[in-house]
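ZP: hey, is the 2-acetamido-2-deoxy-beta-D-glucopyranose complex queued? I don't see it on the tracker
AM: it wasn't, my bad. submitting now with these inputs:
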Amino acid sequence: MIKNKRYIYIIIFTLLLIITHIIVHTYARIGILSETSIQFFIDTVIHKNIEYSQDYIRNHVPESSPRFQGHWLRLIKHYISLPLDGGYGSHKLALLAALILTDKNGGPILEMGCGYHSTNFLHQIAVNEQKRFVLSTDTDYEWILKFKTNMSSTLHQFRFINLISEWNGIGNDRSRWSIVLIDHKPGERRVLDIIRLVNITDILIVHDTETNQYGYERGLFLYPYKYHYTYLSTGTDIASKSNATLLQNIKHLLELTISMKIPK
Ligand SMILES: *[C@@H]1O[C@H](CO)[C@@H](O)[C@H](O)[C@H]1NC(C)=O
Ligand SMILES: *[C@@H]1O[C@H](CO)[C@@H](O)[C@H](O)[C@H]1NC(C)=O
Ligand SMILES: *[C@@H]1O[C@H](CO)[C@@H](O)[C@H](O)[C@H]1NC(C)=O
């Protein structure tokens, strides 16, 4: 009887070794730390839900342990398809890190400039999962209509900007925004809104920062805590005036994507 049990354990152990070996090899080929993969494998094999990984990240940031990296990798794979899209979706990682670290109690989100990458993403995580308010805005009526038709609710509102001057009023109806995404048109407006929203924004995420064409520096200098993320071909900056720790923690998660060599 006892002997039989022992055989079963040996078989299970051998199987685990083989599976681990296959997984580690697959990941090694695409350049992710094998240690991370082992931990990732162990965590997923015990069937923890995705909230478990979110909690783990929130409770352990800014660790860098293989387990921490495994959970971060698991979240990236769950919410963003790999390889990462180096161009259009480069702000997704910053958004994901900010959404997870600010959580349900983080407050509302302002999206300036809609897009398949950000609007759908915010709808899925911020609205559906975290039950946070999102205001999505854009100067393209067709674009707004497309998203509004299937996503509009009391939690997710859409605003069409007809005249450029209307941007001046966007965001003024709330005393604070947890996250503000800057990705709107016309390009000259971006720095004006970065300056305008400085005192009511916890975390600012700015897209397309690989070029000087938007003159972002004129606004970003008002934010004492910043990080310039250049892992992907399109640059993304995160900035905060009020929350050094939060900025530091988002930066930590983004830097891990570089050291972990997340496929791009
Ligand atoms: C910074 O952000 C975190 C996460 O949302 C929050 O828990 C913390 O209270 C904030 N700190 C300050 C000083 O606002
Ligand atoms: C809503 O429509 C957009 C654009 O057509 C599409 O990409 C998205 O998947 C849809 N989302 C939902 C929740 O149906
Ligand atoms: C933000 O706060 C600073 C310091 O209180 C102030 O000088 C500045 O005018 C404010 N900016 C805006 C756009 O309200």
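AM: back. Residues 2-78 form one domain.
ZP: great, adding it to the tracker
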